[in-house]
Amino acid sequence: MLTDSKIKALKPKEKSYKHADASGLYLLITPAGGKLWRLKYRIEGDENVVSFGSYPALGLAAARVKADEARALVAQGIHPTAHKKALQAAKKAEEVNTFGAVAQAWIDANANSWRPYTLSQVKATMGRYVLENKSLAPRPIRTIQSKDIRLLLQSVAHRTQLGPGERKKTGAVTIARNLRMWCRAVFEYAIERDLADADPTYPLRNLTELKRPASTIKHNKKLTPAELKGFLASLTNPVCTRQTAIAMELLVLFFVRTGELRQACWEEFDFDTRQWRIPASRMKAGTAHMVPLCSQAMKLLKEQQQVSGKAGWVFPNQRRPEDCMSATTINRALERMGLNGMGTIGLAAHGFRGTASTRLHERGYKSDVVEIQLAHVPGNTVKAAYSAAQYVPERTKMMQEWADYLDSLKTSSSAELEHPAIAA
């Protein structure tokens, strides 16, 4: 058997020669003085040789360990060289399948099935915190651990400094919760494709930093008749552009979700039948929805056409005309009008839905009619489609009467506001 002293004493000759250690391990001494480790083995009767490296970079003890590992593979009928190449290929594939690359693949795979607003949310959040994250995005997804995701979520939920594109310095628990949900989906996507072995977000499902104290949970403000009167009067406020004022007044008239109005296109409106037909792809429940157009809405829409034209977005983004009005425009306008924020009545854009529901129920309209107009349709697909087509005459009448009621508020006295009339 070889020893270090024997190896050092080996001298090159005119031709390469071998010096054995044990069980097929030997050194090949070259004419140039190289001392190369080799292991001779047999699989299915055929003789093969695998190389390990050179001495002294690979010492005697280390060479024997490698030889033992190779013999263990040979005992299973595995060629050590083929095994090494497979490991290298797996490592290379792992390096290609980074957290950022898999996250992008997940977004691309789902983009066509998401509503436009959802897609824009996912792209913005995952882009900022995952795809552009220089410490996480380049890492193989198999190497991402729970602690990595935990630190990321904590940095978003309890941040103390603003990063690029961020508005809320004190942290954003809702964004952190969405981020955990979308990261979980990325790992599920990776596991299904054998790109990851486990979901590191699972242990974080009850992460303390993602829980919001009950005292901080905000419910959408429902306006009283007096507050509704005040809001309608404030639409002439000079801090609000006319386009934004029209959008807010239409929100009150239609009581649709903010995104459904912002993303509206002129092709969805039929002025002849006086109906706005919102496609299923833009509705929260995935079911097409119809909004009757009252006379007041028709007037506002025709005024808006003078600004936007008769094609494309009803409410184009004033900075980027190729996009629709941004998600924050209306709430920021409400803040400037003194209706949202600390020390105000706390009116948010989504509050118009609850306001309309409350006031219409108070005024005696059938709950089924109100709920269908709110697009609160049953979960059953067939029943939902049937329900959405029901009560069209009643809904059309109700929407016109709702608009007339809003007009009446503008000139109502305090006594009239306290005793609303009941619908016929």
Fold and architecture overview:
By secondary structure, this protein is α+β, with helices and mostly antiparallel strands. Helix content is 47%, strand content 9%. The protein has 17 helices and 7 strands. The strands form 2 sheets. Strands 1-2-3-4 form a 4-stranded antiparallel sheet, covered by helices on one side. Strands 5-6-7 form a 3-stranded antiparallel sheet. A hairpin with a 5-residue loop joins strand 2 and strand 3. The radius of gyration is 34 Å and the shape is rod-shaped. The N and C termini lie far apart (107 Å). The relative contact order is 0.07.
Features:
single chain; 9% strand; 4-stranded antiparallel β-sheet; alpha+beta; 424 residues; 17 helices; rod-shaped
Compact description:
With 424 residues, this protein is an alpha+beta fold. Helices cover 47% and strands 9% of the residues. A hairpin with a 2-residue loop joins strand 3 (35-43) and strand 4 (46-54).
Derived structural class: alpha+beta
Terminal CA distance reads: 107 Å
Task: Report the mean per-residue pLDDT as an integer.
Answer: 85
Please mark out the parts with pLDDT under 50 across 5 or more consecutive residues, or reply none.
Answer: none
Percent of residues in beta strands: 5-15%
